[in-house]
Amino acid sequence: MPTYDYVLPSDPKEFRTPEPTVSFPRLHNVGAHRDETTSPFRRQTISLPVRLRMQYEAPTNLRVEVSRDVKTLSRSQLEAEVQELRENELRFRTLLEEIDTAYAIVEVKFDADDRPIDYRFIEANDAFQRHSGADLRGKWVTEFAPNLERFWFDTYGHVAKTGETATFENYAKAFARWFDVRAVRVGDPAARQIAIFFNDTTARRELQMRNDAIQQLSDRLRDLADPHDIATVAADILGNTLDASLVGYGTVDADAGTIRLDRDWSANGVERLPTPIRSRDYGSHFDDLVKGETVVVADVALDPRTSGHVDQLDAVGARAFVNVPLFEQGRLVALLYVGQREPRSWTEDEVVFLRDVAERIRAATTRVINERELRASEARALENADRVKLALAAGAIIGTWVWDLTADRFTVDEAFANAFGLDPALGREGIPLTQIVATVHPDDQEGLANAINEAVQRGGAYAHQYRTRRADGNYYWLKANGRVDHAPDGTPLSFPGVLLDVNERRAVEAERDRVTAALRSLNDNLEQRVAERTQELMRAEEALRQLQKMEAVGQLTGGLAHDFNNLLAGISGSLEMTSTRLRQGRHQDVEKYIAGAQGAAKRAAALTHRLLAFSRRQTLEPKPTDVVRLVAGMEDLIRRTVGPAITIETAFAASQWSTLVDPNQLENALLNLCINARDAMPEGGRIMIEASNRALDERSAAERDLAPGDYVSLAVSDTGVGIHGDIIERVFEPFFTTKPIGVGTGLGLSMIFGFARQSGGQVRVHSQVGQGTTVTLFLPRHDVGEVADAAAAASLLGAPTGSGETVLVIDDEPLVRMLVVDVLEELGYTAIEAGDGPQGMKVIQSDSRIDLLITDVGLPNGMNGRQVADAARQIRPGLKVLS
User: Fold this and answer.
1) Coil, helix or strand for 23?
2) Contact between 650 and 689 (Cβ < 8 Å)
3) Residue 194's closest CA among 93, 106, 303, 111?
4) Percent of the chain having pLDDT more than 70?
5) How far is CA 489 from CA 9, 452, 458, in A?
6) What integer pLDDT is reported at residue 807 of this predicted model?
7) CA 152/CA 159 separation, integer angstroms
8) Mean pLDDT of 392-402
9) Would you call 300 exposed, middle or buried from its count of C-beta atoms within 10 A (0-12, 13-18, 19+)?
10) Contact 266, 272 (CB under 8 A)
């Protein structure tokens, strides 16, 4: 199509124009939205009634696109046409502004690949903001909705490129609305502009969706017969209809404030709620539910009922929620809840919809429960009817009666009549009550009359047992069960019932009563018999304990006798050989036998030391002891003792507590445990020595037979063969050992056990066969740190020599006393001897000079060595004592 540019002169000029065919005015006064030119009109293509396409660029410049047929127009005719266009434009703009349909001119933006990526609203009518919910004139849509669905760009881009009109209805999540849209291309195709006409159809669509959901719910609930299935289906439909995050239905315990979910539904990524739910954990809105109010929360952070529980509600995907309560007989019984993981303004229509669904769920659930109860009732009725038939066939039910109280007519069935020798025909017509009562045992007639009168006056259930004479002339026990029905005004109407044969049951009850009486008589003496039996058991247990003690003592003395016999044999044999060699003049062999006797004596002393430790009677010298320092000081000795095939590892607490023990005894115990661990690993392995701080509460302390408090634990673990369960209970027994004969005395762990208990602690053994063994010492915590013993650290360069000092020696063993006296005199001291405590006290109380007291601890005749030492210090305060 050719295009011509004209300049309108001041005087009219005629020129040729197409024939008029159609009118489509599109001239717009833009007001403040003016283009770069000074024209009051926007640069716009319009269609004139004469099929001219014109663009106004200036007041006097006109661009005209001409079709085929042309005629001439004068200037005045052209101005008249323009004026008509202006009037048409005004009418058209007024029409667009007044109609309810939203209208906008949209410019579509494309990228380098000609893909639509955005669009701008060039102009829009007032209805645009009402329908879209936003004023977007002059704005790109991505400014308002950066995550707008791709559908809108592709659809508008297709219309702008192809000119094909698009008519559709679609949901825009960013606007949260449904739109019914018609889009057409306008203007120059190169401008990529379209006109859109649309209406907000959200209300209609949501109403349609809710109606569809209600219909779907009704259809699916109709055939369901399980309350859980009803809740599941309803939750699924609600979740999808409302695009919710969480939906559920549950029963409510209003008193406890808990909700037990029957079923729930959740969107992807939302955790399901736990059950039961404690309502108070999620806010105070449960109080409103109890009042019958629907709880609607748009944002839990802003609602005062839930603002203190935001984290808990966010954790279950309920940033916003609606709770619909359901009541029965004025009591809260169930709850429907819908949650949203982000804030949401719930509409009134949505809340009404939820109430409707909740009532339908409750109605369907009630229907199912009632149907179940009805079926169960019918089944019970059939079962009871079968039982009645079986009872009648078995003779358990004698018969039935109906007493018409208004007519005083007493009828019975055939079984009843036969049982009492009555005419069945008369039983159907009616028998005088006096004839029935005449068969009752005379002793029971008064009680029966009272029971009948009471039931007739009261109404309701009736039950009474009495004896009647049957057709065979004998009396039998029976039970009459019935019910008295009253009219609304309280008038007795009817009294139906059955007679049950309870004769055998009464016989059983009589036997039961007899047995009960006998048992009661037996129970009266039961406590005395139990006490006597308990005393017998206690005496037997005491005898058993004594036997076990004697067995342990026998084992102990047998072991002692064996070990000491060997040691004494070594000592006496060495002494005999020494005497023989001296007589023979062979002095060179004497040293060997003296060394052998001394070695045996040392072993005997060590054995005695272990026995004292086992008996917990050894003399301990407890001192504040740093366990870490003690282990570190022994580590080199332990490594040399266990050998290179075994790795030693240690582990200590960061701030290890001290303990109050005899450090020498603790060293011996630790070395003994490491030697045991070495012997359990003949092929090599690892020994772990660990020290830690342990605070034992009452339960933990009781498990270890200790008092509650703080303890230092010292554990020695190995990777050896382990100890079997049947053996581990005996490891602390004296002389018990799993080592080969001749290896160990069996007193090591006994000594450790005695030392630990004497120190106020405990020892425990844990072992797994093939895995290893751990022995743990528990020693009481001591708050004072380790103190260096200067006297012990001092070097003893040699035995001190005397200068006439006097030493009192008290010992009940003459040989020992003789040896000590000889040694003292050899060193230059003066020695005084005493054989027991009283003799020693006589010397102490005398005027004799005494510079040092040496006494044995165990002395006979009433005073032991400690008592003598205490008395001596009182008499001679400066006296030095060695015991």
Assistant:
1) coil
2) yes
3) 106
4) 79
5) 113, 20, 13
6) 92
7) 11
8) 69
9) buried
10) yes
